[in-house]
């Protein structure tokens, strides 16, 4: 005797069956998961082939392995571009990511779209649909995307330190990132050289670095330069 499915489970089963039938016409890798509890329900044949998986292995893939092998929203090379809420009763939110990825010998830029389905009475979604789309950019885009990914990683790692800076600290740091001397910074900000040096000292204390390149990285990562 087959188990009785809830309306939500029937809804998801219908979606999965639709992907199995028409999934080849939908671009990219398609993944369906339940979120309460977390469980892998479906991955298309393209995904199985790309990640070297079987359906059975995918269904039993632990979350930490899934994030390592397939997709981690908080990964170092992943950047959240947009998150929008939906008015639909079925879809509660959509998240849009861009990721620099290395698959075997190939470097790729991927657009990743996550839909969150069927919110419960507390607003927590019960299912998610992930679509991973390789983007066919010109070769020169890859190193630029890699640089952006590094900046995103640096920003995530140092956000807490940066948040301690005052607005004036940030103004001084911006000009330090442009390699201006203390006298030049003072002229730009209409403050004395000693005041500039006090800010520079405080900035280095808060950011825990005396390295000029680290300070320049802060400028790039936090859009000061």
CATH class group of the largest domain: Alpha Beta
Q: Tell me the radius of gyration.
A: 23 Å
What low-confidence regions span 5 or more consecutive residues with pLDDT below 50? none
Distance between the termini: 66 Å
Number of helices: 9
Calculate the mean pLDDT score and round it: 84
CATH topology of the largest domain: Beta-Lactamase
Write out the strand line-up for the largest beta sheet, numbering strands in chain order.
2-1-6-5-4-3
The largest sheet is: 6 strands, antiparallel
Categorize the overall geometry.
Answer: elongated
Order of helices and strands: HEEHHHEEEEHHHHH
The beta-strand count equals 6
Q: Give the proportion of residues in helices.
A: 40-55%
Level-2 CATH architecture of the largest domain: 2-Layer Sandwich
How big a fraction of the residues is strand?
25-35%
Tally of structural domains: 2
Secondary structure category: alpha+beta
């Amino acid at each position: 005797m087959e188990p009785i499915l809830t309306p939500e489970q029937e809804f998801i089963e219908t979606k999965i069956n639709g992907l199995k039938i028409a999934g080849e016409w939908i671009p990219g890798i398609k993944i369906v998961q339940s979120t309460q509890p977390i469980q892998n329900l479906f991955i298309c044949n393209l995904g199985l082939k790309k990640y070297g998986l079987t359906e059975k292995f995918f269904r039993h893939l632990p979350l930490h392995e899934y994030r390592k092998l397939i997709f981690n929203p908080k990964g170092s090379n992943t950047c959240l571009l947009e998150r929008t809420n939906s008015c639909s009763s079925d879809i509660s939110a959509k998240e849009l990511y861009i990721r620099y990825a290395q698959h075997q010998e190939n470097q790729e830029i991927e657009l990743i779209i996550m839909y969150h389905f069927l919110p419960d009475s507390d607003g927590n979604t019960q299912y998610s649909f992930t679509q991973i789309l390789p983007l066919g950019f010109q070769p020169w885009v890859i190193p630029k995307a890699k640089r952006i990914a590094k900046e995103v990683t640096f920003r995530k790692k140092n956000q807490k330190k940066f948040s301690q800076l005052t607005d004036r600290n940030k103004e001084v740091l911006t000009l330090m990132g442009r390699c201006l001397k203390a006298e030049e910074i003072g002229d730009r900000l209409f403050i004395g050289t000693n005041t500039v040096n006090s800010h520079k000292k405080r900035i280095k204390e808060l950011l825990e670095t005396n390295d000029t390149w680290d300070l320049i990285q802060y400028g790039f990562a936090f859009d000061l330069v």
